[in-house]
Every structure is written in C-alpha cells, then in structure tokens.
Amino acid sequence: MQCIPCTRYAGGMQQTDAAHARLRELIVGGAYAPGERLTETEVAGVLAMSRTPVREALRGLEADGLVRSADGRGVVVTALDAAALRDTYRVRAALEALTAELAAERQAAGRIAPAELTALEADTALTEEATAAGRFAEAVTYNRRFHSRIAALSANAPAQAVLERLWDQIVVSTRASLDPPHRPALVNGQHRDLLAAITEGRAADAAGIARRHVLDTCG
User: Fold this and answer.
1) pLDDT score for 186
2) pTM for the full predicted model
3) What is the band of 71 on the pLDDT scale with cuts at 50, 70, 90?
4) Maximal C-alpha separation, the chain
5) What is the spatial distance between Cα 87 and Cα 64, in angstroms, rounded to a whole number?
6) What's the pLDDT score for residue 217?
7) Burial class of 119 by CB neighbour count within 10 A (0 to 12, 13 to 18, 19+)
8) Residue 170: partners with Cβ closer than 8 Å, 6 or more residues away
9) What domains does the chain contain, in order, with CATH numbers?
10) What value does the mean pLDDT take over residues 9-30?
11) Would the pLDDT of 182 be above 80?
C-alpha cells in the first residue's frame, strides 16, 4: 500500500475545508437559491479549484443539510418544508435554552469577560436599530450574531456546532420570505431579558427566556 505524504494529505484537507467554507458562505448568503442545481465542474470553476476538494466539500454540505444529491447530476440546494422547519426550530429552542443556561452559569462563576457581555449588548442594539430602520436582512445578520455569541459563551462546542448547522438551514429556508419580524417589540424585549438574565447569572431564567424566544419567532 502506497503511503500518502502527510504534507500532501494536509494540503488536500485544507483545500476541502476552504471549498466547504466558501460554498457554505455562498449558499447561506443567498448566491445560490433553494432548488438551484450545482455541479462539481461549475463549482470548481467558481472557486478556482480542482474537482476533488469540491466533491468532498459537496459531500460535507449534504451532511450539513444544505444540499441533496440530484440523481447523479450534481446536487440541489435544499430548503426545509414547513414541517421540517418547525421541527428544526424546536431543536434549536432546546439547544439555545442549554447554551443560555450554561452562559449564565459561567457568568455567575466569573468566567466571562466584561468585554464579551459588552459585545452581546452591542449586537442587541444593532438588531433593534436595523429592524426599526427596515433593514431586515441586516437585522437577521445581527440577530444571528447575538445568538451565536451566547452559544460561544456557553463553552459547549458540540451544542455550538449543531446550532450553527441549524441556523444555516433556517436562514436558507426562510430567505425567500424575509419580511418584517412579527411583534418586533416582543422579540427585542426578549433579547433584552435574555441579556439581563445572562449578565446577572440567572441560569434558569436564561434557559426559559431563550426557549420561549426561539419558539415565539418560529412564526
């Protein structure tokens, strides 16, 4: 059996990771719409890469739920149907309750730097400002960053990784119907309540607010 030099293998993995990251960015960012077909050749041209890392990247994105196989003719960008979207929100609600609880526990134990809470508060304000100005795509970006910061503050890597995949699926599946958020005052108020519960180290309250918030935004 011929051994593959470690440097060659590492280089291939780096290319695959780069292809995965860039293609994920394009899909989540809306460059490729749900239902759009992608082929290895086309994507390799767009990314200026060979087909091998692109092929592996597409397999990874299929595992992430962002694309599905199209009968051997490339892949198709996937959007969740209404039932699957509801299920995804319920899983997200459970995980965000966990990460909010853990973040509050870490804050109570003095393990979160003040600057991290300041950044979380800034994202809350930016979300409110963008929503009030009617910049809804921008508000979605700030809103996701707010929730991603809480996941990071939980220091629970498995929950954080799953939440990122769920967020990707939700963003892709709801982009076409992007409209003013329902009850923006409620949503903004829940962000403020969640921020306060984490800042004050109230773990149980943080978990309850986070779960209720996600389910309220399900639509």
Assistant:
1) 86
2) 0.87
3) confident
4) 64
5) 16
6) 85
7) middle
8) 80, 85, 88, 89, 92
9) 6-77 (1.10.10.10), 82-216 (1.20.120.530)
10) 86
11) no
Question: DSSP per residue over 58-72, as a string?
Answer: HHHHHHTTSEEE-TT
Which 3 state secondary structure label does DSSP give 75? strand
Burial string for 166-181 (b: 16+ CB within 10 Å, else e) reads bbbbbbbbebeeeeeb
Task: Report helix, strand or coil for 48.
Answer: coil
Query: Three-class SS of residue 78?
Result: coil
- Residue-level pLDDT at 175: 80
Tokens in use for 203? Answer: 């773990």
DSSP 8-state secondary structure symbol assigned to residue 3: P
| H-run or E-run covering 2 | none
Lookup: tokens for 118: 């300041």
* The residue to which tokens 């730097």 are assigned: 113
Residue with tokens 């990460």: 99
**80, 97, 27, 98: which is closest to 57 by C-alpha?**
27
Confidence of residue 11 (pLDDT cuts 50, 70, 90): low
> Which residue blocks in 29-135 are alpha helix, DSSP H?
40-47, 51-63, 82-108, 114-132
- Report the helix count and the strand count for the chain, using DSSP H and E: 9, 3
* pLDDT tens per residue across span 72-122: 788 999 999 999 999 999 999 999 999 999 999 999 999 999 999 999 999
201's CB contacts (< 8 A; 6+ apart) are 104, 105, 107, 108, 109
Q: Which residues of 18-35 are buried (b: 16+ CB within 10 A; e: fewer)?
A: ebbebbbebbbeeebebe
Name the one residue in this structure whose structure tokens are 């003040």: 114
